[in-house]
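The record is passed on directly below:
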Amino acid sequence: MLTDIQIAQAAEPKKIAEVAKALGISEDHLEAYGQYKAKVDYNLLAEEAHEPGKLILVTAINPTPAGEGKTTTTVGLADALALRGKNVVVALREPSLGPVFGIKGGAAGGGYAQVIPMEDINLHFTGDFHAIGAANNLLAAMLDAHIQNGNELNIDVRRITWKRVVDMNDRQLRHIVDGLGGKAHGVPREDGFDITVASEVMAIFCLATSITDLKERLGRIVVGYTYDDEPVTAHDLQAEGAMCALLKDALKPNLVQTLEGNPAFVHGGPFANIAHGCNSIMATRMALALGDYCVTEAGFGADLGAEKFLDIKCRLAGLKPDAVVVVATVRALKNHGGVAKDDLNTENLEALKAGLPNLLQHVENITQVYQLPCVVAINAFPTDTKAELDLVEAECNKLGVDVALSEVWAKGGEGGLALADEVVRLCEEGDADGRSAATFEYSYDDDLSLTEKIEAIAKRVYHADGVVFEPAAVNEIAKLERLGFGAMPVCMAKTQYSFSDDAKKLGAPRDFQITVREVKVSAGAGFVVALTGSIMTMPGLGKTPAAQKIDVDETGKITGLF
């Protein structure tokens, strides 16, 4: 059996200019990065009026070691829609080097449902993440230089909130002391690094609607507080112009293609467990403008990525999904039912029945909380039995939701035709209960307090009994509301493995509370972050990271990526 990278390397891709031309992108708006990837000028959206296409969101159950195949399903669904004669564009996030070299691996799909060039996308690509890291760290350097050179803004060095970033899993950098070595080397203070995808600059980059909007948002970043308890912003440091200059080219969406030659924008990449987990608004709008169908995804399970896509991205960008796909595997559901990874290939209807509530809760959240039409895509494995597949379908049908077997990993677009047909039906007709883009609702209203918004997500989406706010979080919420940030949406930072804030509570747990230990404002992004449980903004590498298997030969051919 060929590996993902072998399948990708065996493909014969179209030249990117050909892909762009078929999509209606002129040479004037295309900036090629070699033969198979390019950036598209964001001025295209302003210069040409387009009727937006249908928006399809792909999400999933809570991830398990068994895998779900969300990106694979997203790409395969797009290829299947193209086989049905639809003008379709994919919109995905860029992978972070942290997971690529860590445990998760790449994020370009898998099998015969991938975006290519797979190696480029999973590594440096067009340099967007480097530009984002440079902009973030420029602000950090200007902040420390200001303090070193007189501190006219009266910044309290004990209350600096802005961290430097690196796009790598590196636990050694979580908590550091810097500025050592004497007066000439800075002011000593406790500090730390975040991973680049957790940076507010990344969130701003993905939520900006223009270069002007990007610069204004960068200026609103809060980097710390004065001794008088007033916020200090990037604009106070006169940093936003230079930061925006570093991001000017990165802001242009990246155009690549699927294995079957269909267009895909891969742009931006915030994590969904600690950020909002969606690709850029610029890329999504471009895909909607140029295609009749835009297939996009949100990170991790629907409790994280889809919740933030719907409550944050759609709210800020005025988007309304026409259909939602919830991806699951029989293997992953058995894992939620208590079966160890090594035993997942054996039929186990009892374990599947025990794990199914995880899928059903995600489905009900989409249909009952957000009032959107939904289809369940079962990402097929050869070990799935008919009895297991029938059980999943029967339980979903009880909720009025159809199930489509997806075989896109093995068959590409041909393996997703049934899913594509159901998605088209939902986009065109809505579901049997009348749900459509027109019935879309958020999980909370803008006029609620920050506390009420957090409680609404915890109770309505996670099905928690309530929220425990630690004293530091209570004080910070009061301060943020006093400073005028209370009207913002909330970005929950939570483990991806469970509806709860405890990664070990699989399935659909009940009788639990969410603990909020810290709250901070991302004023430029336009949301308030609530950190729950033990969630961290800088991951670490495991005992045997994926990096140990990645290599390159004398011809420059990369191996070991997956």
Summary: DSSP finds 19 helices and 25 strands in the chain. The chain has a mean pLDDT of 93. Residues 128-148 form the longest helix (21 residues). The CA atoms of residues 32 and 335 lie 44 Å apart.
